[in-house]
Write a structure and sequence with these properties.
The chain has 201 residues and is mostly helical. 77% of the residues lie in helices and 3% in strands. The protein is built from nine helices and two strands, in the order αααααββαααα.
Length: 201
């Protein structure tokens, strides 16, 4: 029985992470579609409304109020022991909103969303089953980092091969670092630095 319990917990965790990252990638793909079909302004407005409404719901939920849809999302997709309800989703929307607000170019926005939606999702889904832990971050695996890089490669279709490969590689490294920032915020911030540096040289 002692050996079965950890195995069941690991299986439950994998199932939760799969659900979370499936939703994570679907939201990112929706944001990409909104960008391409309606433009940057529509995407920015949508993210702004989502950020405002989400922040209100987080405050209300922390006060103990019941919001049926939000409660269902928390029960279905939220990890245990997070700092506040909707923790990952909040940083996802905030990071995307800041990036879209400050970076006006649609191709660069699309590249960031691909890394965030596909690369980050793949790194968790595949990495959680990996066995080769990174020497500088035992919480991450080599398998997860390889998955992040591979699933970020569609950015090459947008940025060009050389810039796309460099972007995918740097975002892979950033995602693997043992820093306290949530990946959903760190990737948009690192993307801003990447595109800002490219403008200088």
């Amino acid at each position: 029985m002692v050996g079965i319990l950890p195995a069941k917990l690991a299986e439950d965790r994998q199932e939760l992470e799969f659900r979370r990252k499936l939703l994570h990638s679907l939201i990112g793909l929706f944001l990409l579609a909104l960008l391409f079909f309606s433009g940057r302004d529509a995407l920015l407005q949508f993210l702004g409304i989502l950020l405002f409404a989400g922040s209100l719901m987080i405050v209300w939920m922390k006060d103990g109020r019941k919001i049926p849809v939000a409660d269902w999302f928390e029960e279905t997709f939220e990890r245990d022991a997070v700092k506040f309800p909707g923790y990952g989703a909040f940083w996802y929307v905030l990071g995307s909103f800041i990036f879209v607000l400050l970076i006006p170019d649609a191709p660069k926005i699309a590249a960031m969303l691909i890394a965030l939606a596909l690369g980050d999702s793949a790194s968790t889904i595949i990495g959680i089953k990996g066995s080769h832990h990174l020497p500088y971050n035992r919480r991450k695996t080599l398998e997860g980092s390889v998955a992040f890089f591979v699933f970020s490669l569609p950015v090459c279709l947008i940025l060009g091969t050389e810039s796309g490969l460099l972007f995918a590689l740097l975002m892979t490294i950033v995602e693997s670092l043992p820093v306290p920032l949530d990946d959903n915020l760190m990737i948009p911030l690192a993307s801003m630095l990447f595109f800002g540096a490219n403008r200088l040289f």
